[in-house]
Specification:
By secondary structure, the protein is α/β, with parallel strands linked by helices. It contains 14 helices and 15 strands. An eight-stranded mixed β-sheet has the order 1-2-4-3-5-6-7-14, with helices on both faces. One of its GO terms (cellular component) is cell envelope.
Length: about 425
């Protein structure tokens, strides 16, 4: 046997701790658990000998030079960037797959490398149990600060208790976590503004509430805050289009599948394939002569929804808006006549704000209730303002506002010099 190859394959495909945890979750007998634990220790010893080391860190892989072991299509539990930085942070991404989330992770790691910050990455895989388990591991890492992007609202309280009991400062991304300062866009504002843009385009095409159905592709497990983007989208559309059933955003709950004559809601889980399947399954229930408006919580979900609409040959009578401002969303906005708005939250650049926020917290600053992510609703007429000449990387980021203005003194952001007015 080639022991070097065997060592690499075992460490890549399965972690010792993962084997042990899977057995515990199977609820086997006490004797079986003790036997599994004994086998686990034996495997550790075998791996240590075969790999030429004395110990193996479960679920972790060291990546030299600031590399990224969590790219698209991979689901490592954790990876560590080597280096001796002034700060050591851990970051758990909502998922390590999907272009939006990969872009966020790559941007954070790039900024960390430039700033000399050590980062240990975790993948929550859009799963509450995984996020909770990762939170436990992150506490064991004893970092200076934890950045947690947990997409399942139901485990947020438990995660917050772990961090707070350990006395480790933390930042919650997108979905709030008790005891952790919160970084997020305003889903309410971006959803409402997007709804107004889409409604104006629908009216310009002669569509009314009498012949239009709005499909909201929500994410039920993510909580109300994330779903405000679709809820307030509907409210804005209903207020703008004659004949539309007026339903306030607060009345649209995550368990509703239909409301009134104009609203249909499906759960796309903020991911491409689930969104594709959800919209594909609901389209046959909407009469062929109806016009369709679609809103989702992010571009991955929007791409899945739009694929279902195209396959059903209903694209000519549908309008959609994206949310994320990623490369694919910008491409659709420029090239697809029915992709009429793109809520740009400059997602690949969230990492620089998060790291700046973390450093300012460790330096004694107290963030506001929500540190605002940059955001703007792009249209076909305004996309070149931030992305001139077909660019997919913005030429400049929006200026800091009231909910993130405390970052104006961040030396990290000043050194990056890509935010309007940051060095004025």
């Amino acid at each position: 046997m080639n022991t070097d190859r065997w060592c690499v394959e075992v460490q890549t495909e399965s972690s010792v701790q993962g084997v042990y945890e899977m057995t515990i979750e199977n609820r086997g007998s006490q004797r079986r658990r003790r036997l599994t634990a004994l086998i686990t220790l034996m495997v550790v010893a075998m791996l240590a000998v075969a790999c030429g080391g004395s110990a193996i860190e479960p679920t972790a892989t060291t990546v030299a030079g600031g590399g990224d072991a969590g790219g698209a299509g991979s689901t490592p539990a954790a990876s560590t960037e080597s280096g001796d930085g002034e700060y050591f942070f851990t970051f758990a991404n909502a998922t390590a797959s999907g272009p939006l989330f990969v872009g966020l992770q790559e941007g954070l790691m790039k900024t960390a490398e430039e700033a000399g910050i050590r980062i240990k990455l975790y993948n929550n895989d859009f799963d509450g149990e995984t996020a909770l388990r990762n939170a436990q591991l992150m506490v064991q890492d004893k970092p200076d600060l934890i950045i947690m992007y947990n997409a399942v609202e139901g485990v947020s309280a438990s995660i917050g208790k772990l961090f707070n009991d350990a006395g480790i400062p933390c930042i919650a991304v997108n979905v709030p976590i008790p005891g952790c300062p919160w970084f997020n866009l305003s889903n309410k504002e971006i959803g409402y503004e997007t709804g107004k843009v889409v409604a104006e385009e629908a009216k310009a095409r002669g569509w009314t509430g009498e012949n239009t159905t709005v499909i909201l592709v929500q994410n039920a497990s993510a909580g109300e805050e994330v779903n405000h983007s679709v809820m307030y989208f509907y409210q804005a559309v209903a207020e703008s289009m004659e004949g539309m059933d007026l339903i306030n955003a607060e009345e649209i709950t995550r368990d509703k599948t239909t409301m009134g004559n104009n609203l249909v809601q499906v759960d796309g889980q903020s991911a491409l394939e689930p969104s594709y399947l959800a919209v594909k399954n609901v389209l046959p229930t909407i009469p062929q002569d109806r016009k369709i408006l679609v809103m989702t919580p992010n571009d991955d979900s929007a791409m899945g929804a739009w694929r279902a609409i195209e396959e059903a040959n209903r694209a000519d009578d549908a309008l959609i808006a994206g949310l994320g401002g990623g490369e694919e969303g910008l491409k659709q906005l420029r090239e697809n006549p029915n992709w009429v708005a793109e809520g740009d939250i400059f997602f690949p650049f969230w990492g620089q704000y998060l790291l700046a926020m973390a450093i300012e917290m460790l330096n004694g600053d107290t963030p506001p209730e929500r540190t605002a992510a940059p955001q703007v609703v792009l249209t076909k007429e305004t996309v070149d303002q931030y992305y001139p000449d077909g660019a997919t990387v913005p030429s400049i980021l929006p200026p800091l506002g009231p909910e993130n203005e405390y970052l104006k003194d961040s030396q990290l952001l000043k050194s990056l010099d890509n935010i309007e007015g940051i060095n004025d």
